[in-house]
Design goal:
The chain has one domain: Beta Barrel (Elongation Factor Tu (Ef-tu), domain 3), CATH 2.40.30. The chain is built from 4 helices and 16 strands. The N terminus is likely disordered.
């Protein structure tokens, strides 16, 4: 199986780790990726290794409340994310980008409430009760764990982008997720446009891997 991605992305190639959160090195151009024989190769970007099936410590199956974040994913990038608390199993992972499956669980027993986001803006917690049935299915996801060096975050965060278009927010709902593998370490970028292109490339890679039977079958673990 080969999938070609003809994206050209300028990145400040930084591998972000717990011990060394900011370590700038190169500024390469990233222009083509292919999935072939268990590897995703992109020039000047860390290689993604695809195993025949998830390898330890995966799968990681958790359920978390969706909390407020910075609001940048949707407003600035057009790629909305659900922020979740970093539980122990996630905190023990290498920082970077991961993939898997996810599902939203509304809480119909809770009424709408208003809370202040980190940036001071008020947001409505509707606990997922505005979602319709087709938005409560199991969807592929990509997850970011780390400091997001492009925005120079001071606090480690975990964010999930559910690969589906939703008509409303779902702050305060529960999100059940299963993490199945790792795509790459965190990187920094020369422009916001480059960041968006790279996230979209991560999404393409995740969807390609999750279409493999040994990864797709984990959807069943999120069924009611």
């Amino acid at each position: 199986m080969i999938a070609n991605f003809d994206d050209e992305i300028n990145v400040k190639y930084e591998e972000i780790t717990d011990k060394n959160p900011l370590n700038p090195t190169l500024n390469p151009t990233l222009n083509q990726a292919s999935i072939d024989k268990g590897h995703i190769k992109i020039r000047n970007r860390p290689e993604t290794i695809i195993h025949d099936k998830p390898q330890p410590p995966f799968p990681i199956h958790e359920k978390s409340s969706i909390i407020s974040g910075f609001g940048r994913g949707s407003s600035e990038l057009g790629i909305p994310t659900a922020n979740i608390p970093i539980q122990d199993e996630l905190n023990n992972l290498q920082t970077g980008i991961f993939y898997g499956w996810s599902k939203i669980h509304p809480n119909p027993n809770l009424k709408d409430s208003t809370e202040k986001r980190i940036d001071g803006n008020e947001i409505i917690f509707n606990h997922g009760n505005k979602l319709i049935a087709k938005e409560l299915c199991i969807f592929p996801m990509v997850m970011s764990i780390g400091w997001n060096p492009f925005y120079d975050n001071k606090q480690k965060a975990a964010e999930i982008h559910i690969i589906n278009k939703f008509n409303d927010n779902f702050y305060g709902a529960k999100i059940e997720y299963i993490v199945l593998g790792y795509i790459r370490p965190e990187l920094n970028y020369t422009t916001k446009e480059a960041l968006i292109k790279d996230i979209n490339l991560d999404i393409k890679i995740a969807k390609e891997i999750l279409s493999k039977p040994e990864y797709e079958k984990y959807k069943d673990e999120l069924k009611d």
